Amino acid sequence: LASPIWTDDQQVLGLIVLSINIKKLFSRLQRELPDYYQLFLANSQGELLLNPELNKPQANGQGPSVMIQTQPPELLALLKGESSNMLSILPAKREQPNRLAAFTTVSIEAESKHLLLGLAVPEEHILAASRELDHRLIQIIMALSLITLLLSLWLARNMIRPLNQIGMAIAHFSEDLSLQPLPTERGDELGKLARNIRAMQEKILTQIIELNTNQQELQRMAHNDPLTGLPNRRLFFDRLQHAINNAERNGKLLGLLYVDLDHFKEINDTHGHAAGDEVLDNIAHLLASVTRSGDTVARLGGDEFVILFEEVESRATLLGIAQKLLALLQNRLLIDGKDLQVRASLGISIYPQDGRDAQTLLQNADRAMYSSKRSGRNTITSA
């Protein structure tokens, strides 16, 4: 290899010539490569400088020159400069199997001259490497499949199953407000989600209980007297109408006992409204003591009470109950440390003799009570 040396003003000072021992260079390279590798070297005319098939360099001027294009003819494109590298198959020769060769051009001068370098490997070694690569790929695929299976099992246990459990718990809660098990013991995001859902469910249940309690309290206030807790006029008329319907179907008698306290205003004026309220509460308990579980004691307002007996045998039976109540009312009441005497006027009516509807039946009991007041109070009158 040679190159001139120029000065800054382009004057030629001399020529540098580099001599390379191709045989030693490629012999060393051949020693460093595996035994089955073969090196080819040709000049730009295609003349083989290093021919592994003859196991000697051709640049010594002895014997006929061997042209590289006689190996694979398609290498002619490299010699013409139409391509810079190429893969080719070298056919079997002299007990040598087919070889796969790679050729490339190496420029050595500025005038488009170059060397042609080739490296050949027997097909059997390539196929062996390919088979080994196939085995490695199969091993990798099997390992990846096993990892995928283990990952799927892990996901099923640690992700999908808890998510299904959370979904089922939400579905049951939305259907019947039941609390199903949740993975609240987990320390990851799913456990945090489960704990938040449980807290939300408990909060919703608390709010529903409060709403039901408030609704029941509103219903109680709408149907019960706030002082005595007895049914009010509205609830009493509902039960009376229901009792009349049953009595009409069954051919039974039912009775009303109207109770109005005597001189109750004087108790309020003399002892105060607090004492009056306590008197009303005591009278409510007293009225309940003479009734059965199916009967209704109601406060219509003020000091007026009424008792509905859903089944009575006769007017005499109802009158006997009224007399028992009147006897109890003769007892004095101890209210706030004060001994009070409370009396009442009573009136009774019977279905269907004294009325076939609720309003008429109550009005006749009310009229009978006022007859008791006109008769001197603290007595009983039947409609």
Question: Topology of this protein?
Answer:
Blueprint: E1 2-6, E2 12-17, H1 22-32, E3 38-42, E4 48-51, E5 56-57, H2 76-79, E6 85-90, E7 99-107, E8 114-122, H3 123-176, H4 189-223, H5 233-250, E9 253-262, H6 264-271, H7 273-288, E10 296-301, E11 304-312, H8 315-328, E12 332-335, E13 338-341, E14 343-351, H9 358-374, E15 380-382
Parallel strand pairs: 14-15
Antiparallel strand pairs: 1-2, 3-4, 3-8, 4-5, 6-7, 7-8, 9-11, 9-14, 10-11, 12-13
Helix pairs in contact: 3-4, 6-7
Structure characterization notes:
The structure is a single chain. The chain is an alpha+beta fold and 383 residues long. The chain folds into three domains: 2-122, PAS domain (Beta-Lactamase, 2-Layer Sandwich), CATH 3.30.450; 182-220; 233-382, Alpha-Beta Plaits, CATH 3.30.70.270. It is built from nine helices and 15 strands. The N and C termini lie far apart (147 Å). Mean pLDDT is 84; it is low at 56-61.
Question: Quick summary of this structure?
Answer:
The chain is of the alpha+beta class and 383 residues long.
- Which CATH architecture of the largest domain is right? 2-Layer Sandwich
The CATH superfamily title of the largest domain: Reverse transcriptase/Diguanylate cyclase domain
Question: What share of residues is helical?
Answer: 40-55%
The mean pLDDT is: 84
Compute the separation of the termini in Å: 147 Å
The number of distinct β-strands equals 15
